[in-house]
Amino acid sequence: MKLWGGRFTKEENQLVHSFNESLSFDRRFYAQDIKGSIAHVTMLAKVGILTDSERDQIIEGLNGIKADIDSEKLAFNDAEDIHSFVEAELIDRIGDVGKKLHTGRSRNDQVALDMRLYVRDEIDELLPLIKDLQKELLQLMEANIDTYMPGFTHLQKAQPVTLAHHLGAYFEMFSRDYQRLEDNRKRMNYCPLGAGALAGTTYPLDRELTASLLDFYGPTLNSMDSVSDRDYSLELLSDLSICMMHLSRFCEEIIMWNSNEYRFIELDDSYSTGSSIMPQKKNPDIAELIRGKSGRVYGALVSLMTTMKGLPLAYNKDMQEDKEGVFDAIDTAKGCLALFTGMLKSITVNKANMEASAKNGFTNATDAADWLVKNGVPFRDAHGIIGTLVLTCIERDISLDELPLEEYKKISPVFTEEIYEAIKMKTCVDKRNTIGAPGRDAMEKVIAIYKEKLN
Questions:
Q1: Which residues are catalytic?
Q2: Which of 186, 222, 413, 433 could be a cystine partner for 439, CB 3.0 to 4.6 Å?
Q3: What percent of the chain has pLDDT over 90?
Q4: Cβ atoms within 10 A of the Cβ of 307, count?
Q5: Which of 10-24, 53-67, 364-378 has the weakest average pLDDT?
Q6: CA distance 120 to 233
Q7: Which residues contact 393 (CB under 8 A, 6 or more apart)?
Q8: Is the pLDDT at 268 greater than 70, yes or no?
Q9: Is the pLDDT of residue 273 over 90?
Q10: 47-87: pLDDT as tens digits
Q11: Above 80 in pLDDT, residue 387?
């Protein structure tokens, strides 16, 4: 059944139908479409446009359709979209009363409602996935508060930190991802139903009631914007793109840490694959795929931005292109979050390798210079002295911890046995105790804050 057939004298070309239809993908939000219709007819009865009997027949019919789709008893046909499919099925089931379902609304405000309801529901499913990942991160942080490792700048070893501190950076990133999704949910939570095609309707609709029935804060306040706004979808795609970028960065580090050159961690067999020709290989394919899928989500964002950028007010058919990219990006992000959390839970941390890498990378050089400054040497001179000592260690293939005291004294008589205590990894890390730093006391405070946030 076409919802617009009366004006036309010819049947739609089959190629045109195939190009124009959206049921093949918008069937995904049949539950939201039916939920919106139930709220709509409830409101229509309240304002006297439908009788209570008509309302009840329609609601019973809609609930039956949903139950049959849920159970796969009812198959989708070649209808143009989910709206016309549901309406035609309703009329088949309850007769002419079903023809009153669409009173006072357009497909424009109907699809705007369905999409908002769907995005809102998906945000509600994405948020717990991020929280699950943060819970796993927090457990790893608590277990590795004294696991020393090199911190990097420019991919060069810089200063010693702990694995807990390093993981805390990602906890912060995912916290922001969580907040962005929450903010989007709040900003989009206004009901467009009742906006009509673009200019409202002459029927005495109670839009506040409809909004309340659907758990919105209230109705949207401009009917043209109501049907032409897809900012919430763009925001969602932006939020997911940033979240995928964070996952991708983390995957990049996991891939490096898992390599033979680093050996900081080992991925579990269940999250690795092998080579078809090289029997020794254990590849981090899951991490690599998650890293790769970030581009897929970025593509959805750029695609919808490009679709929307030149559209005049109000609704245009171009906007049908908002759905497939959003659906795919949501599926991709949800899958990646769940897989990444499982992968993270399975890793084995090689604490000794991490600490050895920090020592051999001279990450305690700054602390050695600071020790000289505290013992009266100007910082610029101290910087040069430690640089010379590092060069000596490189020539001998040893760390600062292993350099004999007499070699220290050759460069500066200020050095004493105390230098070795000053450049221990534990000392270097634990004396950095301003909030946000890697010291044990600071990290314990931050972990407590994170626990409170998650609760």
A1: 154, 275
A2: 433
A3: 91
A4: 18
A5: 10-24
A6: 10
A7: 362, 399, 400, 402, 403
A8: yes
A9: no
A10: 999 999 999 999 999 999 999 999 999 999 999 999 999 99
A11: yes
Query: How confident is the model over 424-451, as a mean pLDDT?
Result: 95
Between CA 249 and CA 294 the distance in angstroms is 10
State residue 315's pLDDT score: 94
CA gap 101, 77 in Å, rounded? 20
Burial tier of 89 (Cβ tally within 10 Å: 0-12, 13-18, 19+): buried
Contact 354, 147 (CB under 8 A): yes
Q: What is the mean pLDDT of the chain?
A: 94
Two tokens, residue 444: 């314990």
